[in-house]
Amino acid sequence: MNDSSIFLRRVNLRNYMSIAKCSVLLGPLRFLVGQNGAGKSNFLDALRFTADSLNTSMEHALRDRGGIAEVRRRSSGHPTHFGIQLQWELPSGAHGVYSFKVGARPNGGFEIQEESCEVHSAAEFGVSSRYTVKSGKVTECSLPTAPAAASDRLYLVAISGQPEFRPIYHALSRMGFYNFNPDVIRELQSPDVGEVLAGDGHNLASVLKRLSDDPGCSTLPRIVELLGRVVPGITSVSHKPQGKKETLEFRQVVAGSKDAWRFDAENMSDGTLRALGVLVALFQSPAAESHRVPLVGIEEPETALHPGAAAVLRSALLEASQHTQVIVTSHSPDLLDDKAITGDMLLSVTGHLGNTIVGRVDPVSRDAIRDHLFTAGELLRLNQLGTDDSPGSSNEDQQVQGSLLEAP
After folding, report:
1. For a surface tag, which of 58, 123, 291, 342 has the fewest beta carbons within 10 Å of its beta carbon?
2. Would you say residue 398 has pLDDT above 50?
3. The whole model's pTM is what?
4. Which residues contact 148 (CB under 8 A, 6 or more apart)?
5. Who's near 341: CB < 8 A, 6+ residues apart?
6. Does residue 23 contact residue 359 with C-beta atoms inside 8 Å?
7. Contacts of residue 361, Cβ cutoff 8 Å, sequence gap at least 6
8. Alpha carbon of 296 to those of 87, 205, 302: distances in Å?
């Protein structure tokens, strides 16, 4: 595995949906495994919430999830806030910590109670930049002139015009999270710049056009090659203008025909469209750091695919994780049924009385996978991938401490 593809080193969450508290290390590729309803999607959604809040606004991100009452965890303790803390590193070697805590106010209102960012340069004695904002007031900032703050918007947006903070803003805002809707992909799509694939695939044609317009890019041929292994007979897929809209055009060899037939997206199966979406999500990122998608999260990529496609999908995930950090939720034993999937790639997610526990797989399962006694898929079939609940097991080292994640 290529550690240079890691963007988020550690994720700390507090009171986010069903997750009371978790602190997990991430690597180039992580599989969130667990039963349906355990809370796998909630972990991934905390990262998506961060990107959504930076790309639109926190009010919009909360409204999309039903308001702050639906985002902050419901429990007997009645927590009034939730917190997200991310340890990150960029290909340039710059690294740091970004975190924020959001509190509930009367009548469904909210306030960003605290937000902070630390940026350390790659040089051994490099310059550090930082800021802290509390309830809409800048309490610390390394810049000589600090932009104004507001209690309902993330300060990273306001300060992203400064070169010290621009790279981390771009990286966090360009994370991509995917749960593809084949019906949306079938519809005629509105053109856009196609820089980042949309979460439901509604700009898939534009992203394919961007990839095909790059003469030195080998990404599209690789996507088509892998798709042809999932759906036999596929020889090409391309952007197709349709008036002021656009769609996808597939070429597929049909039995008894000398030449490949042409099919629009509306004529393709759910599995074909989802497989294409997953592959484009994984391989969409250009080499340039300023335009790369540093992290891709995919909900159950195996959905609507026949079991025989699992090996192709697994190969694509492993390959893509060499240049982009990848997190997937899955409960497919077929997807994990390979010795290349190590215990360190797995995060076990279990639910108990409405509380989600996210952590490393238990030591017995890790040892069995390491010693090649079982594959991760075989243990999942046997329902033997438990969460390590030994003291200090939630993490290989101490979690980052800070007021943003402490109890109120």
Report:
1. 123
2. no
3. 0.92
4. 158
5. 31, 314, 369, 375, 376, 377
6. no
7. 343, 346, 347, 348, 369, 385, 386, 387, 388
8. 16, 19, 15
**DSSP structure string for 41-109:** HHHHHHHHHHHHHHHS-HHHHHHHTT-HHHHBPPSTT---EEEEEEEEE-TTS-EEEEEEEEEE-GGG-
Question: Can you tell me the distance from the alpha carbon of 26 to that of 23, in angstroms, rounded to the nearest whole number?
Answer: 10
Lookup result for tokens 């355990």: 38
Mean pLDDT of the chain: 90
Rg of the chain (C-alpha set) = 22
C-alpha of 50 from chain center:
11
103 token code pair: 């509190």
Helix (H) / strand (E) containing 360: strand 355-360
Q: Which of 398, 385, 325 has its CA nearest to residue 358?
A: 385
Q: For 330-403, where are the alpha helices, taking DSSP H only?
A: 363-370, 376-381
Amino acid (one-letter) located at 266: E
The region of weakest confidence among 93-102, 156-165, 208-217 is: 208-217
Q: What is the DSSP string of 299-333?
A: E-TTTTS-GGGHHHHHHHHHHHTTTSEEEEEE--T
